[in-house]
């Protein structure tokens, strides 16, 4: 079992060191690259001047949030877990990075069980089974499609609230852009 939390902890060392942390005595460089590829971070690493020897900085300050998340996912995957738990692992990411990580999770979930804990519902849309919690109880369970058919359900209402909120944010951004053009 492996866990990736909302704010992954990276150490002041190389990307390679951070991926193989705690299991460096039995993993190879090839294993590191394979895990990085699975986590959609390998191509980025190759664009850096020092590749896998690039320093992350204390707590990963030299990397973006998405890069830190993907390195943490690679660290989890190198252990070849049967179960991967992601606790709000995409909540602080921009939409494009979240999509990249969702693609990664979709790929790896073919071979392992992935448990995703999330408030951002786009993160769980492709899950085989979604459990909706309210007041510490499971109040709904099913696929996204099934839960969206229950128009009086908690999940349906949450999805519509998030869509409305995202639309309002987009409208505000467009208004800001139009105001800037008019200034």
Automatic annotation (TrEMBL):
Highest taxon above the source species: Eukaryota
Provenance organism: Acrobeloides nanus
PANTHER family the record matches: ATP-BINDING CASSETTE SUB-FAMILY B MEMBER 10, MITOCHONDRIAL, ATP-DEPENDENT PERMEASE MDL1, MITOCHONDRIAL
Molecular function as annotated in GO: ABC-type oligopeptide transporter activity; ATP binding; ATP hydrolysis activity
PROSITE patterns, alphabetized: ABC_TRANSPORTER_1
Protein's name in the database: ABC transporter domain-containing protein
Domain ABC transporter: 3-91
Pfam families per the UniProt record, alphabetical: ABC_tran
């Amino acid at each position: 079992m492996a866990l990736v939390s909302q704010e992954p902890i990276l150490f002041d060392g190389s990307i390679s060191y951070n991926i193989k942390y705690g299991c460096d005595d039995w993993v190879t460089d090839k294993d590191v690259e394979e895990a990085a590829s699975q986590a959609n971070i390998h191509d980025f690493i190759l664009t850096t001047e020092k590749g896998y020897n690039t320093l992350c900085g204390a707590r990963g300050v030299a990397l973006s949030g998405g890069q830190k998340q993907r390195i943490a996912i690679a660290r989890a995957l190198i252990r070849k877990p049967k179960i991967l738990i992601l606790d709000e692992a995409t909540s602080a990411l921009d939409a494009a990075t979240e999509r990249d990580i969702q693609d990664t999770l979709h790929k790896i979930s073919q071979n392992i069980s992935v448990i995703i804990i999330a408030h951002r519902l786009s993160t769980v849309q492709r899950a085989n089974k979604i459990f909706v919690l309210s007041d510490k109880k499971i109040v709904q369970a099913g696929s996204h499609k099934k839960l969206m058919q229950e128009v009086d359900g908690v999940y349906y209402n949450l999805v519509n609230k998030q869509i409305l909120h995202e639309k309002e944010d987009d409208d505000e951004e467009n208004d800001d852009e139009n105001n800037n053009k008019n200034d």
